[in-house]
From TrEMBL:
GO terms for cellular component: membrane. InterPro entries: ANF_lig-bd_rcpt, GABAb_receptor_plant_PBP1, Glu/Gly-bd, Ionotropic_Glu_rcpt, Iontro_rcpt_C, Iontropic_Glu_rcpt_pln, Peripla_BP_I. GO terms for molecular function: ligand-gated monoatomic ion channel activity. May form heteromers. It comes from Erythroxylum novogranatense. Residues 1-25 form the signal peptide. This is Glutamate receptor.
C-alpha cells in the first residue's frame, strides 16, 4: 500500500505521463494521410461497416505500429442515402480535405459520380458494398471493388436452375441501378443452359404494398413458378411478407435469392423469416477461422460502445470486406511512401466550377499500383484485386429451414455444384457440374421435400390461346365452322381430335381456347409459327409440319403422323399385250443364265454318255445337236434319248428339278403379267420431270413450295392446290390444258388423296425426308415434355387408330399404292442357289468320270514303247472320243445283237 504522496505521484508518472510521452514521441515520427469515408450512417449496416473500419485501423497499427511511418486519418461523411449528398461529400473530401483515397460510397448509384470525379483527381475509390456490374463499364482504373460483382453469382444461380431441370425463370428485382445491373448477366447465364426468361418483374424501390401485391398477382397468372429475387433487404422483406399472404410460399413455388438478401437473413425480422421458409439463396462463402470468431466477439463490444442505442449488432460479410479493404488501403499507403503526398492545383479562372478547380493527387499513381498488387489473408479469406475487382470466392448455397439457415452445398467456378469444399472431385464427373445430387436435401416452400417442376397451369388468369390454321381444303385435318345463331367457331378434324385426346391424358387440367388463323395469300404456316414465337399464341395445333427453320423459333412436340414428302402421279394400265410380252417374266440376266446352263448341262451329258450310248454317237454335228436337244427337251420331259450312265442319271435328276422350278415360276409370272391389271406410273424420274418443263402441283401455303423450288423446278411451272378436289381436277386437265402431270405433298395429304383415288394415282420414289405433324409451343415452354409424353400414350394405344378411321376411313378399302413401284420380272438373284447346285453336281460328275477314264487309260499314258508324248496324247484323245466297247451297256448291246466279245481288247488294239 502506498502512503507517501510523493510515491503516488511517481507511480502516476510512470503509468500515465510516461506512456503519453512515448506516444507523442512516436506520433512525431509518423506521417498522417487523409482518407475519406462516405457511408449512409442512418443505416445499421453502414454503422456496422464503420465500426469494422475503425477496428481494422486499431488492429493494424497495434500490430505494425512500430514498422509503419504512415497513419490513416479518417474523415467521415454521411451520404444520408442520397445520391446528391454522396456526390457533394466526395467533392468536398477531394477538394477541401485533399484525401488520398475514399472508402465507399455505399450504393452503386452514389458511386457513379464519385468514381468519375475521383478518377479525374487520381484518388482511388474502394467500395465494399457497391456490387452493380455497370460500375465496371465506367473503365476507371482508380475504382476498386472490395466486394463481389453481382455477375459472379449468376453462374451459381444458373447451375441451380440447371440441376433441377427448370426451363423458365422470372427475375424479380428492384427497379434501380442495383437491381437492373444483374438482369443482363442473369438472362445470358440462363440462356446458356437453355432456360428461358419469359418475363422480368421490376418493382420500384418506393412501391407500396398494394403495388407489390398487384405485381405478384401478375406472376401467379403465369405458368412459371421459379422466381429469382434480387433486391435490397428492406424491399425484399416486404415482398416475401406479401407473397406469403397471397399463397405464393406454398408447394410448387421456387424462390431463389441473391446475396443482396442472403447476406442479411440473420438480421431479418422473425415474421419475415417465417414467411421465407423453403427459400434457396446464394452468398459468398467466408471460412470460419479462429481470427474471424475472435473478431466477432470483439465487434459486439465495439459496436455497443459506438452505438449504444442499437441492441442487437449484426455482423455480415460486408463488415468483413470493410475490415479487409481498410487493411489493404493501410498497406498500400505505406508502400506508396510519403513522397509526393501533396496535390497539384490547376490554373483556372475565378469563374470556374468546383470540378474544374479539382487538384490532382501526386501520390495517386503510386497508391493505385500498390493497391493493385495488394494480397493478404484477411477476415473474408484471401484478399486481392484482379483488374480492380475482388478475386471471386466460392458461393455457398443456403436453404431457409425452420429457425435458421442451413448450408446445402457450394458452387465454384472450377467444379460447379459440390456438397463440400476441398473434397476430391470424381474424375468421371465433368467440371462445372450441375447435378441436384451435389446438394444436400432441401426443404421447399410449403415445408415439402418434393422438388417442384418449376411451372404449373395457373388457376386464375388467361386461358391458353391455341392458334389453328384454317383453309378451304383438307377438312379431314382441320375444319372450322361457325354457328349461324351464336356465331362461335366450332373446331373439328383429325388434328383437333388428337390434341383434345392428348390434353385429356395430361395429369392436370389445361384450359384453352382455339383461335382461327386464316391460311391464304401471304399468310402461310411459317407466319402462323411466327405468331407463336411472338407469343401471340400459346401453342399452334393443326397440320403443321416440324421443320428445322421453324424449330429455331418454337419448340415442337413429338410428331403424331408419318413423315416425308412424296410425289403423286397418275397411273396407266399396262397389261403387257405386246408381241414380246413372253420375255418379260424373266430378266435379261436370268435368260442368259438359263441358256448357259442348258448348254453346260448338254455338254456334261454328252461327256458322260458319248462312249457308251449309241444315241449320242454319229457325226460331230449330230452329237452336238443331240446333246443340246436332250438338255432343252427336259423342260417338257419329252426326250427319247435314254441315259445309260449312272452319273448322267444323277445329273439329269438334279437338272430336271431346276427346270421344273424355272418353268413353273415362268408360267406363274407370265400369267400374272397377261391377266392381272398393272397400273404403272406415268412418271418415275424426278430429273426427267424437271427437264420436261411440265406443270407441277403443291399444297397452297405449305413449305413444299420451297422444297420443289430447291429441287430445280421452274417457279412459273408450279400450280398450288388448296383441296383434294382441286388436285384431282388439275390432274384431269393435264399439263397442256392448265393442269399438272405430278404433284408434291406431305405423306398425310398423299395417303388421304390416294385413299379416295387409289385406282387413278400412285406415289413414286424418292420420298423426301421431313418430320411429321407436331404441336408448336413457345421456346422453353414446360408443356412440351408433358404433351410429347401424352402423344406417345395416344399413338401406342388404339386411340390413334380410331381417330384415323373416323376421318380417313378404314385401311384396306384400297390397295396400298403408297409403296414404291418395282419390277415384276424374276431375276437371277431368286435362282442363284439352284444354279449353284446343278452346276456343282455337273462339275462333280465330270470330275469323277475323268478320274475313272484316266485310271482305265493308265496303260496308254505310261506305255514303255517308243511313242512320243504327242502320240500318246493323240491316242488318249481318240480313246476318249471313240466307243467304249468294254463298258457294260456296250457289252449288253452286243449280247442282244449276238456279237459277243469274250475278252477285253488290249489298249494297243483300241488305239488303232
Amino acid at each position: 500500500m502506498i502512503n507517501n504522496p510523493s510515491e503516488s505521484l511517481l507511480v502516476l508518472f510512470f503509468f500515465f505521463f510516461l506512456p503519453m510521452k512515448m506516444v507523442m514521441a512516436q506520433n512525431s515520427t509518423t506521417v498522417p494521410v487523409n482518407v475519406g469515408v462516405i457511408l449512409d450512417l442512418d443505416d445499421g449496416v453502414n454503422k456496422m461497416a464503420l465500426s469494422c473500419i475503425n477496428m481494422s485501423l486499431t488492429d493494424f497499427y497495434t500490430i505494425h505500429g512500430g514498422q509503419y511511418k504512415t497513419r490513416l486519418l479518417l474523415t467521415i461523411r454521411n451520404s444520408k442515402q442520397d445520391v446528391v449528398v454522396a456526390a457533394a461529400a466526395g467533392l468536398d473530401l477531394v477538394k477541401s480535405i485533399e484525401v488520398k483515397a475514399i472508402l465507399g460510397p455505399t450504393t452503386s448509384m452514389q458511386s457513379t459520380f464519385v468514381i468519375d470525379m475521383a478518377a479525374k483527381a487520381q484518388v482511388p475509390i474502394i467500395s465494399f458494398t457497391a456490387s452493380s456490374p455497370t460500375l465496371s463499364f465506367l473503365g476507371s482504373p482508380y475504382f476498386f471493388r472490395a466486394t463481389q460483382d453481382d455477375t459472379t453469382q449468376v453462374k451459381a444461380i444458373s447451375a441451380i436452375v440447371k440441376a433441377f431441370g427448370w426451363r423458365t425463370a422470372v427475375p424479380v428485382y428492384v427497379n434501380n441501378e442495383f437491381g437492373r445491373g444483374i438482369v443482363p448477366s442473369l438472362t445470358d447465364a440462363l440462356t446458356e443452359i437453355d432456360a428461358r426468361v419469359p418475363y422480368r418483374s421490376a418493382i420500384s424501390p418506393t412501391a407500396t404494398d398494394d403495388e407489390i401485391g398487384e405485381e405478384l398477382n401478375n406472376l401467379t397468372a403465369m405458368q412459371t413458378r421459379v422466381f429469382i429475387v434480387h433486391m435490397t433487404p428492406t424491399l425484399g422483406s416486404r415482398l416475401f411478407l406479401i407473397a406469403n399472404k397471397l399463397g405464393m410460399m406454398s408447394p410448387g413455388y421456387v424462390w431463389i435469392i441473391t446475396d443482396g438478401l442472403a447476406n442479411f437473413l440473420s438480421s431479418m425480422n422473425l415474421s419475415v423469416f417465417d414467411s421465407m421458409q423453403g427459400v434457396l439463396g446464394v452468398k459468398p462463402y467466408v471460412p470460419r477461422t479462429k481470427e474471424l470468431m475472435s473478431f466477432q466477439n470483439r465487434f459486439k463490444r465495439k459496436f455497443m460502445q459506438d452505438n449504444p442505442d442499437i441492441v442487437n449488432a449484426d455482423l455480415n460479410v460486408y463488415g468483413f470486406w470493410a475490415y479487409d479493404a481498410t487493411t489493404a488501403l493501410a498497406i498500400a499507403v505505406e508502400k506508396a511512401g510519403t513522397i509526393n503526398l501533396g496535390c497539384q492545383k490547376p490554373n483556372v479562372s475565378r469563374n470556374s466550377t468546383d470540378l474544374e478547380n479539382l487538384g490532382v493527387s501526386l501520390s495517386g499513381p503510386n497508391l493505385l499500383q500498390a493497391l493493385s498488387n495488394s494480397s493478404f489473408k484477411g477476415l473474408s479469406g484471401n484478399f486481392s484485386f484482379v483488374n480492380g475487382q475482388l478475386k471471386s470466392s466460392p458461393y455457398q448455397i443456403i436453404n431457409v429451414n425452420g429457425d435458421g439457415v442451413r448450408g446445402i452445398g457450394f458452387w465454384t467456378a472450377e467444379n460447379g455444384l459440390i456438397r463440400k469444399l476441398n473434397t476430391p472431385i470424381n474424375s468421371s464427373t465433368s467440371a462445372n457440374s450441375a447435378s441436384k445430387s451435389s446438394l444436400a436435401p432441401i426443404m421447399w416452400p410449403g415445408e415439402v421435400n418434393s422438388i417442384s417442376k418449376g411451372w404449373q397451369i395457373p388457376t386464375k388468369g388467361k386461358r391458353l390461346r391455341i392458334g389453328v390454321p384454317v383453309r378451304s381444303g383438307f377438312p379431314e385435318f382441320v375444319k372450322v365452322t361457325k354457328d349461324p345463331t351464336t356465331n362461335p367457331s366450332n373446331f373439328e378434324g383429325y388434328c383437333i381430335d388428337v390434341f383434345d385426346t392428348v390434353v385429356s391424358m395430361l395429369p392436370y387440367p389445361l384450359p384453352f381456347d382455339y383461335l382461327p388463323f386464316e391460311i391464304s395469300g401471304n399468310k402461310t404456316y411459317d407466319e402462323l409459327v411466327d405468331q407463336c414465337y411472338q407469343q401471340k399464341y400459346d401453342a399452334v395445333v393443326g397440320d403443321v409440319t416440324i421443320r428445322l427453320n421453324r424449330s429455331n423459333y418454337v419448340d415442337f412436340t413429338l410428331p403424331y403422323t408419318e413423315s416425308g414428302v412424296s410425289m403423286i402421279v397418275p397411273v396407266k394400265d399396262d397389261k403387257n399385250k405386246n408381241a414380246w410380252a413372253f420375255l418379260k417374266p424373266l430378266t435379261g440376266d436370268l435368260w442368259v443364265a438359263c441358256f448357259c446352263f442348258f448348254v453346260y448341262t448338254g455338254f456334261v451329258i454328252w461327256v458322260l454318255e458319248h462312249r457308251i450310248n449309241e444315241e449320242f454317237r454319229g457325226p460331230p454335228l449330230y452329237q452336238v445337236g443331240t446333246s443340246f436337244w436332250f438338255s432343252f427337251s427336259t423342260m417338257v420331259f419329252a426326250h427319247r434319248e435314254r441315259p445309260l450312265s449312272n452319273l448322267s442319271r444323277f445329273v439329269i435328276v438334279i437338272w430336271c428339278f431346276v427346270v421344273l422350278i424355272l418353268t413353273q415360276s415362268y408360267t406363274a409370272s407370265l400369267a400374272s403379267l397377261l391377266t392381272v391389271q398393272k397400273l404403272q406410273p406415268t412418271v418415275t424420274d424426278v430429273k426427267e420431270l424437271i427437264k420436261s418443263s411440265a406443270y407441277i402441283g403443291y399444297p397452297q401455303g405449305s413449305f413444299v413450295l420451297g422444297l420443289v423450288k430447291h429441287l430445280g423446278f421452274d417457279e412459273s411451272k408450279l400450280l398450288a392446290f388448296d383441296s383434294l378436289e382441286k388436285l384431282n381436277t388439275l390432274f384431269t386437265k393435264g399439263s397442256g390444258n392448265g393442269g399438272i402431270v405430278a404433284a408434291f405433298a406431305i405423306v398425310p395429304y398423299s395417303k388421304l388423296f390416294l385413299s379416295k383415288h387409289c385406282s387413278k394415282y400412285t406415289t413414286v420414289e424418292p420420298t423426301f425426308k421431313t418430320d411429321g405433324f407436331g404441336f408448336a409451343f413457345p421456346r422453353g415452354s414446360p408443356l412440351v415434355s408433358d404433351v410429347s409424353r401424352a402423344i406417345l400414350g395416344v399413338t401406342e394405344g388404339g386411340t390413334m387408330k380410331n381417330i384415323e378411321e373416323k376421318w380417313f376411313g378404314k385401311e384396306g378399302s384400297c390397295p396400298d399404292t403408297g409403296t414404291s413401284i418395282s419390277s415384276n420380272s424374276l431375276g437371277i438373284e431368286s435362282f442363284w442357289g439352284l444354279f449353284l447346285i446343278t452346276g456343282g453336281v455337273s462339275f462333280l460328275a465330270i470330275l469323277i468320270y475323268l478320274i475313272m477314264f484316266i485310271y482305265e487309260q493308265w496303260d496308254v499314258i505310261t506305255s514303255p514303247d517308243s511313242r512320243s508324248l504327242r502320240q500318246r496324247a493323240v491316242a488318249l484323245f481318240w480313246n476318249f472320243y471313240n466307243r467304249d466297247s468294254s463298258s457294260y451297256p456296250m457289252i449288253r448291246k452286243q449280247v442282244n445283237g449276238q456279237q459277243v466279245q469274250l475278252t477285253k481288247p488290249s489298249p494297243s488294239a483300241q488305239s488303232v
